[in-house]
Amino acid sequence: MTTRPHPVAASAAADAAALLSLRDVGITHLDAARATPSAVSLDVRPGEVVLLLGPSGSGKSTLALALNGLVPHAVPAAVEGTVRVAGQDAATATVAQLALTVGMVFQDPDAQLITGTLLDEVCFGPENLRLPVDVVLARAEAALRRMGLWERRHESPDVLSGGGRQRLAIACALAMGSPVLVLDEPIANLDPRGVDDVYAALREIVAEGDRALVLVEHNLDAAMGLVERVVVLDGEGCLVADGPVDEVLRARAPELHALGVWLPTATLAALRLRDAGYPFARLPLTPAELREALEAMPARGAASVPRSPERDADMPLLRVEGLRLSQGRTPVLHGIDLAVTAGEFVAVVGANGAGKTTLVQAIAGVLRPPRGTVRIDGIDVRRAGARTLSRHVGFVFQNPEHQFVTTTVFDEIAHGLRAQRLGDAEVRRRTEDLLTRFGLIDKADVHPFLLSGGQKRRLSVGTALIGGARLLVLDEPTFGQDRARADELLALLDDLREEGTTIVVVTHDMQVVAEHADRLVVVDDGRIAADGPVVDVFSDAALIARSGLRTPPLREAFAGLARHPGLATVARLRDLPGGAR
Amino acid sequence: MTAVVETTAQAVPRRGLAALNPLAKIAGAAPAMIALVFVRDLSTPLVFLCLAYAVLLLGTRFAPRALGILIGVIPLAIVVVAAGFALWVDPARVEGSPELVRIGAVVVTAGAAEVGLATGLRLAAIMALAFIGGLTTEGADLVRALVQQLRVPYRIGYAGLAAIRFVPRFGHELAVIRQAHRVRGARGGAWSAPARVAGYVVPLLAGGIRHAERVALAMDARAFGAHRDRTERYLVPWRRRDSVFVGVFWAVSIMVFVIVRPF
Questions:
Q1: How distant, in Å, are the alpha carbons of A388, A430, A488, A493 from that of A496?
Q2: Which residues of chain A have a CB within 8 Å of the CB of B6?
Q3: B100 — contact with chain A (CB < 8 Å)?
Q4: Cβ atoms A204, A215 nearer than 8 A
Q5: Which chain A residues in 109-138 lie under 8 Å from chain B, judged by CB atoms?
Q6: 3-state DSSP call for residue A553?
Q7: B138 is a domain residue
Q8: Is residue B63 helix, strand or coil?
Q9: At the N or C end, where does chain B have fewer CB atoms within 10 A?
Q10: DSSP strands (E only) in B166-258
Q11: Which burial class, exposed, middle or buried, applies to A24 when counting CB atoms under 10 A from its CB (0-12, 13-18, 19+)?
């Protein structure tokens, strides 16, 4: 694809009415070989809602940071071209001056908190601007009221939920009084309830129409209906599309998909179905549109949907019977029964504090379960020593860095084998085998902390499996990661599963549940509230609401389709007819 | 929209010690604390211990944790330090003093016990005096007082305040790291403790630095450091009662030393 000179490039003269005006902006990080983004020109006018898309490595977040001068003033990088913020040149203005025009909301709500109460937190920005006390308070009150937090102003931010803390971060940006808000993956660290919370808040801001939003977001399903304009960067960081949602996402969906840009689930599903012969006149963007389009189409020959293989209940790999567990004096699990057969991919879901993590930690022997309640391959987890246990089950913590105990990638893998008292030659052979399989062999002598995020995650999975475990247990492995990195891990899990590894994963991520798991275990208040194939569990609407889950978009579109019964049970994109999309 | 005007630092007005300027509480107790380092008798620390307790009990409404420190931690510290020093003290220094207890080869003389008790009381008195400020001041108010009265640059003060928020986060992260290392089968036992602890430091620092960078970006994005000063919504003034508190505390301290004559 030719990208320059570009047909959608903004006119050469900076637009005087634009709040943000970028001309041929290229940003090169200190350690990077080339500029990403590169040669980007665009304008953002008052009240616009812009979604910034692009594949991993296209420089979306870097571009977002350049909009208020954090790049290059706080994060060193070489910036070419001009970034004008309300007429000022961002290269010469200070971040503080630019903050008057551009407010920022970052991914991690915890990293945006400085003071001890909500009110102090929201006042922090206006105080830095040396506004008079009564103006500071008026702004804080207005911002907190808009985010529905005014009544809680004297509380500590620590007691808010993740969604509440992110709403507080938005209130802080509102209180700066800046006409543009830039949000960089604001919901990546949130559970489904938090996502709803934040998007409800954003919808209200858009409805008022007094702020322009620039949103970097991977969850397009949440963002549809909110955004008006879409800007797309390609893998090189060049601008390839800039226009209304319809013109970009609907009209150019196949091209964007080929670039590796995320699309709404409903659009992806329609692309596959179209390949399979379903005639979509207009690509849908939301589950409701997809459903409507399908119901207007003639029925097709029943698509053969592969059902997940029937479980062999007699020979489970993992058997949990009557598991009760307390933490301190608080009972957390009240009698859990669960059997997992070799080769299954089980997602454990539930609201915060339901006992999900406790359950999987007991399964993997991180916490010690009572005698006889957890058996893997017939071995009692309580009685097994660490060495025996590592041959049967591997546990992966949320942050891979937490579990590295040695100083090289090679030793990290070899550690588990040496603990089994294997000979040096055998340790070397098996370690190198695994490193090759995980694509880490050329990093064998590197310190684990110097790996990239995705490589660290692969290494942590490798350390869990080197003992020969057939059962891999992961605790929220995609939490706080951007979509690209999460997808990399999920692809690895799918490969392992193909090779016969059984996978149990705790997650809030509905994408994991919908696209990768074949069985869903819902934990509610220390008990198993539901356990079955993903499709069946999601048909219970009351249960889903109670457990803090959300119906995945495909279920929303397909459940009970009258004219296409063959699609009515599909939960995963990959199970749709239409081949290799 | 009308703003509720809340220019005092608190929604609920404070009373007693909590209403004093944090610097007054430090300045008041500081001379006595320094002087206590050099005394060797029993009476002086005992008097200051009682004095500090009296000030604390009269001037504060206690949270359970603070009461626990006063009733539990300080007396326990006296006992432990006293016992430790009584055993450890050089016998030559207390030669000739009568034997008090003998367990096997271990002898505790009255002189040694006295030295131990004096040390324990001295440390306890210093601790109690420090708690006059420590238990009744919020970190944010201390930062504000440092900025407003001592002209400490606010960039340093507020950066410190943000850093205080890291502490519980660090604690939680350390707990998770220890759990993860145990699962990996990191060596157990007392001999390998230093290696084990060293293994916690790298991930803890890596996480800490990354978090600090993010917090710094978020603060910059909210115009932190834009001007030479910033709006102080909460004034922590130095009032007449602060001067009175410091003056009276100093006068009483001097009186104690004059009457007890420890030197």
A1: 21, 17, 13, 5
A2: 119, 137
A3: no
A4: no
A5: 110-116, 119-120, 123-134, 136-138
A6: helix
A7: yes
A8: coil
A9: N
A10: none
A11: middle
Q: What is the pTM of this model?
A: 0.85
Looking at the domain assignment, is residue B175 inside a domain? Answer: yes
Q: How many CB pairs under 8 A join A and B?
A: 159
| Measured CA distances, A39 to A172, A237, A261, A543 (Å) | 32, 8, 19, 49
Residues of A in contact with B187 (CB under 8 A): none
> Residue A511's pLDDT band (boundaries 50, 70, 90)?
confident
Which of A333, A381, A375 shows the shortest CA–CA distance to A521? A333
Distances, alpha carbon A8 to alpha carbons A12, A317, A383, in Å: 12, 57, 66
Q: Are residues B123 and B182 in the same domain?
A: no
Q: How far is CA A276 from CA A99, A280, A297, A303, A577, in A?
A: 50, 11, 14, 9, 6
**Both tokens of residue A110?**
């915890």
Boundaries of domain holding B185: 151-232
Given a contact cutoff of 8 angstroms between Cβ atoms, the answer to whether A99 and A176 are in contact is yes
Across residues A310-334, what is the average pLDDT?
A: 83
> Does the pLDDT at position B14 exceed 50?
yes
Q: Which of A186-190, A363-367, A479-483, B70-74 has the lowest mean pLDDT?
A: A479-483
Q: What integer pLDDT is reported at residue B29 of this predicted model?
A: 94
Burial class (CB in 10 A: 0-12, 13-18, 19+), B205: exposed
Judged by a CB distance cut-off of 8 A, whether residue A395 touches chain B is: yes
Fold classification of A341-549 is Rossmann fold (3.40.50)
Residue A301 has what pLDDT?
Answer: 59
User: CB-based contact (8 Å) between A502 and chain B?
Assistant: no
Cross-strand pairs, A44: A20
CA–CA–CA angle A218, A564, A245 (5° rounding) = 30
Residue whose pair of structure tokens reads 């003034």 in the numeric block: B237
Instruction: Give SS3 for B263.
Output: coil
pLDDT at B167 over 90: no
d(CA A27, CA A39): 9
Largest distance between two CA atoms of chain B: 81
What SS3 state is found at B216?
A: helix
Q: Band of the pLDDT at A538, cuts 50, 70, 90?
A: confident
The secondary structure of A217-228 as a DSSP string is: -S-HHHHTTT-S
Query: What is the per-residue pLDDT across A142-168, written as a single tens digit (0 to 9) for each?
Result: 999 999 999 999 999 988 988 999 999
Q: Do B214 and A108 touch (CB under 8 A)?
A: yes
The mean pLDDT of A333-358, rounded to a whole number, is: 91
Across the interface, of A120, A130, A402, the residue whose CB is closest to B231 is A130
pLDDT above 80 for B188: no
* Distance, CA of B119 to CA of B40 (rounded, Å): 8
DSSP string, A298-339: PP-SPP-PPPPPPP-TTS-SEEEEEEEEEETTEEEEEEEEEE
For chain A, what percent of residues have pLDDT higher than 70? 94
B64: amino acid identity, one letter: P
Estimate to the nearest angstrom the gap between the alpha carbon of A254 and the chain centroid. Answer: 23
φ, ψ (nearest 5 deg) of residue A366: -70, -45
Question: Is some CB atom of chain B closer than 8 A to the CB atom of A258?
Answer: no
CA-based angle B110:B116:B122, to the nearest 5? 135
Superfamily of domain A46-72+92-265: P-loop containing nucleotide triphosphate hydrolases (3.40.50.300)
Task: Strand A49-53: give its sheet, edge to edge.
Answer: A102-105, A180-184, A212-216, A49-53, A229-233, A239-244
Q: In what order do the strands lie in the sheet with A374-376?
A: A330-340, A318-327, A374-376, A379-380
Q: What is the mean pLDDT of chain A?
A: 88
Whole-number pLDDT of residue A219:
84
Identify the pLDDT of residue A313. Answer: 54
> CATH 3.40.50.300 region(s) of chain A?
46-72+92-265, 341-549
